[in-house]
Amino acid sequence: MWHSVVTIALVFAPLPGAEPTHNLVVKPQAHRTLVNPPCSHCRDEAKRRAKQLRADDRVLCWIRGKYDGGAIPIRFFLNPYRVISDTYGLFVYDPDAGFARGFAPSLDFTFYGWRDGVVVMKHKDGTLYSCLTGIAFAGPRQGSRLTLLPTLVSDWGFWL
Q1: Does pLDDT of 145 surpass 60?
Q2: Which of 89, 90, 56, 62 is nearest to 75 (CA)?
Q3: Does 90 fall in a domain?
Q4: What angle is formed at CA 139 by the lines to CA 138 and CA 141, rounded to 5 degrees?
Q5: CB 105 within 8 A of CB 89
Q6: pLDDT class for 110, splitting at 50, 70, 90?
Q7: Tally of structural domains, the chain
């Protein structure tokens, strides 16, 4: 039995040096990228959108430095943009794949498309990154990984 399993695994292993094939859908026009938006810090958003935000609105939250973090209302920011390139962090949202997360701050990324059903962003140098893993899969920085920010998705009322 063990011999059969090993044989099957070897038959389906990629050839040395061969690139794995992936379904890359290039559609940078599908979602605009929001670059350095007005502050989404909790106190500022609470004041600015007091009549619009509901306690059950979903938000992407993070803890960072002297501001004690912030929360990005998904309905207002991440739904229409999917990628936010900001000095607080690089924030991504993929409702189809079911995640939102943050990476180290950068103003150098834009929405690019999808790869195997997961949102892809492009660095200004042409490197393509998975928004799920933060790993570069093509371009000058292929194989590098973005620094993750601790984030969680919560409700506005609870976070506030």
Answers
A1: yes
A2: 56
A3: yes
A4: 100
A5: yes
A6: very high
A7: 1
* pLDDT grade for 41, boundaries at 50, 70 and 90: low
Alpha helices per DSSP H over the chain: 2-12, 42-48, 79-81, 156-159
**Spatial distance between the Cα atoms of 38 and 53, rounded to a whole number of angstroms:** 16
CB atoms near residue 38 (< 10 Å): 10
- Is residue 52 in a domain? yes
Side-chain half-sphere CA neighbours of 113 within 13 A: 11
Q: Is residue 153 a contact partner of residue 159, using CB atoms and an 8 Å limit?
A: no
Asked if 70 and 61 touch (Cβ cutoff 8 Å), the reply is yes
4 within domain boundaries: no
Sequence-separated (6 or more) residues with CB below 8 Å from residue 72: 40, 59, 60, 61, 78, 84, 91
Q: What is the DSSP letter of 65?
A: G
pLDDT of residue 51: 86
At 122 the three-state DSSP class reads strand
Domain of residue 78: give its range.
Answer: 23-159
Dist CA 134 CA 149 (whole Å): 11
Domain-located, residue 40: yes
